[in-house]
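Database export, one record per block. Field names are fixed; values are copied verbatim from the stored entry.
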Amino acid sequence: MKFGFPTATIAAVTFLAGVAAGLASPVLAEETVSPTSLNNLSAAPKVPATPAVSTSAVQFAPQTEIVQDVTVTPAIATTDDADFSSLDAAVAAQSATIDDEELNCLAVGVYYESKGEPLAGQLAVADVILNRTTSGRFPASICSVVKQPGQFSFVKGGKLPQVDPGRRAWKTAVAIARVAAKDLWDSPAKNALYFHARHLSPNWGKARVASVGNHVFYR
């Protein structure tokens, strides 16, 4: 059995479908350019090009040498590093004040063991005390060396006797102690560790170093 559709009916359906498709599609508006916009673009200010710079036209200032004055202050010699012409001069340059316990012990040792001796003899006694502190066979400090039992007869019960600071011999002993501690003058009894009065003859069996004043020195 065949079914037939009238031609007019098919045409109507086709027409309606076309209308519906047209309604569903978006309508794009055409972009229009305003004449005013074109005029503005053409009227934009023109930036002038940077002119080329010729290197031959550039001139440099002549070089100027800068000289800075430097003042050199000469070093001032002190009693610690000054060269003395004699032991007397080295002693005379020292302060007679005591500001250190170790220096006081050294000066007391020099005073009681060698006051009245020539300066070289007093310096030799001071150096014996100092040499003992570095020998490894005696205490390592000056006061301990001076106060060591059985070494110096002026020490009583491990205490040092008082000294009148106004005595000239004491001031000399302090100056000698400073010269020895600063190593400002060489000892005439180098490396000596022992000494005794000339009138004594101990059987020490030690190497004799020198005789200075009324003392004989050994190591």
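Remark 1: Residues 1-43, 64-81 have pLDDT under 50 and may be disordered.
Remark 2: The helical segments are 7-24, 35-42, 87-92, 101-114, 119-133, 142-147, 168-182.
End of record.
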